[in-house]
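SEQUENCE-TO-STRUCTURE ENTRY
===========================

Backbone structure tokens: a row of integers, each naming the local backbone shape at its residue.

Task: work out the structure tokens from the sequence, keeping to the layout shown below.
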Amino acid sequence: MTLILKTLLHFLHPLSLVWLVLGAWLLRMIIRRRSAGLWFPGAAWLLLSLVTCTPFSSWLIAGLENQVTSVKVAELPQAEAIVCLGGGFVPSLVEPAGFQLQSGADRLTTALTLAVKGKAPLLILGGGGYPHQGRVFSEADAVADYLRSHLSLKTELLSMGVCDDTHDEAVKVAALARERGLDLLLLVTSANHMPRTLAAFRKAGINVIPVPCNYIGSMNHLGEQRWLHLPSVRGLDVFGAWLHETVGSWVYYVRGWI
């Protein structure tokens, strides 16, 4: 009974309703042999089905996530700094912590794990800015303030303030590395974002060891792979992440950032 209710609730989601109604309409038109004008809606339904009802999006993102080999914390060498890119947290005026965790929060937990394990004496936090009522709030500052107030870390914390993008983070870290004479850094970001990030940091002249995390593709998750399932918004999110990184890599290449 519980499974039936969950399935019914699933079909009440706008994505599932659109998929179901469009599919039913296409089937009705095919049965009535009215094929004229079905190419575009038919292609749209097939694309929607491919992205949301199969592991296609996960297969695409795995091509990015697996470009850089996963690591074990215990096997990582001692470094001079840990760099945690932003994207996993957003400043907040209403959250008790002062910030809100997002889908990329594994970046922060991974960086903190490295810090607690004593892998480097310095933790550098990156992230973007959020304009609000004439003021720009920094996600790196919000997290750094929280960590200083609530955790007793032996690792020094440093915020890079507001960064425009990954290239800006690389440029700022490169300047800091030259200023402090840092030779080896552990670079933490999402696995699908790591290929572009690694290229951008090395282009900036920084010697880094990649520490990928936040694997979002189902092919890198525990559990049996489901080859067909009801429409899932997660498929759209994963496809969006793949598209963002693919287009982003092209843009970075054209601009000479990688």
About this structure: Strands lie at 81-84, 89-91, 99-101, 122-125, 129-132, 135-138, 156-159, 185-190, 208-213.
